[in-house]
Design goal:
The two termini are about 35 Å apart. By secondary structure, this protein is of the alpha+beta class. The protein folds into two domains: about 210 residues, no CATH class; about 90 residues, no CATH class. The strands form three sheets. Strands 7-8-6-5-10-9 form a six-stranded antiparallel beta sheet. A three-stranded antiparallel beta sheet has the order 2-3-4. Strands 1-11 form a two-stranded parallel ribbon. The chain has 13 helices and eleven strands.
């Protein structure tokens, strides 16, 4: 996806200003026409209403504490996806239920970490996860996603990297940070020495990255100035890295017992994550309220950062889907180009 930079000193505000153009029925009708869609007469109102409600939920969540903000963010995400996906489909969507559930939490054996709870995607074709997932990523097969712990989802959110790996100390990384450079015209990504010290099994983790062999030449071990792994991008290889809002780049490992299944796109991964947080806050107050009020381990900070990250990144990702290019927000204005006279 191409990138375009938009000047903004307040990206979270600016992205909603761009999204809220779709809260007006006339603008929605124009966009549907541009996309050559001819849906039912009620479609523009349904889409505009979904965008308006999404904004209200997100805006309200920013002034709410962790007791309720996950639930508000999830409702906002559901409405935002509903509006965007109906715009992309050009029709009213039939959605029944969340399209996922959580494994029961034994009352006599609470999890060691709250992030150990398990999310189970449903194979239902009309579940929200399947409906939205198919429109955002047609090749995504929800029925093959498998079950995920909340911790496994956390581990694959780029902007949560420092908080997650600082607290959970995972033995096998879900994300591998890379530093990018060039060698002539060739894009080169490298894994730095400190990461190899933290994860001795990193070569095995690289093998668990779906699409690595088609994107890069064989990884090379380099010992110049410290041991590192260097990845040379193939001339025809696509960019399979994930970019954090900070600009940091990551490679994402696969999921499952053998790490063979690709992780879903970030929009779906964040949606599943937010569902789990909202479910805990709504249906397990006996766990959630004490966790928010008295957690002394530091895990609460990971959950709070996840809500903040979702509030900032998810609308941006949906905006990208609607525009067809990646919007990067920058605080420096583009300098005018010199014109020869």
């Amino acid at each position: 996806m191409d990138e375009r930079t938009v000047y903004s000193e307040h990206p979270e505000t600016t992205q909603w200003e761009m999204l809220m153009q779709y809260s007006y029925e006339l603008n929605v009708a124009k966009e549907l026409s541009r996309r050559r869609h001819s849906g039912p007469e009620s479609l523009p109102a349904a889409i505009a209403g979904a965008f308006s409600q999404a904004y209200e939920y997100f805006h309200t969540s920013s002034a709410s504490s962790l007791y309720t903000s996950p639930l508000l963010v999830y409702y906002g995400m559901a409405n935002l996806l509903s509006g965007a996906c109906q715009m992309m489909a050009g029709s009213l969507l039939e959605v029944e239920g969340h399209g996922m559930s959580m494994l029961p939490i034994p009352k006599d054996r609470p999890p060691e970490h709250l992030a150990d709870v398990t999310i189970c995607p449903s194979a239902s074709a009309t579940g929200a996860l399947s409906v939205f997932g198919h429109l955002l990523c047609p090749q995504l097969d929800i029925s093959r996603l498998g079950d995920w712990t909340l911790s496994e989802l956390f581990a694959r959110i780029p902007d949560l990297y420092d908080e997650y790996y600082g607290f959970y100390r995972a033995s096998f990384p879900g994300l591998i940070p890379v530093a990018r450079g060039t060698d002539g015209r060739v894009v080169v990504d490298r894994v730095e020495p400190e990461l190899l010290e933290r994860y001795p099994q990193l070569p095995e983790a690289l093998d668990a990255i779906p699409g690595l062999s088609s994107a890069y030449l064989d990884p090379q071990d380099v010992n110049m100035g410290g041991h590192r792994i260097v990845l040379y991008r193939r001339s025809s290889g696509s960019d399979i890295t994930l970019r954090a809002v900070s600009g940091s780049l990551f490679l994402c490992t696969g999921h499952g017992p053998t790490h063979a299944n690709p992780a879903p796109i970030q929009e779906i991964l964040l949606y599943m994550t937010s569902f789990a947080l909202s479910f805990l806050s709504r249906y397990h107050p006996e766990l959630w309220n004490p966790f928010v009020k008295t957690d002394f381990t530091g895990e609460r900070l990971v959950f709070a950062k996840c809500v903040d990250v979702t509030r900032r990144t998810f609308p941006n990702l949906v905006l990208n889907q609607l525009l067809g290019y990646s919007v990067e927000f920058g605080s420096e204005r583009e300098q005018p180009k010199a014109i020869k006279i």
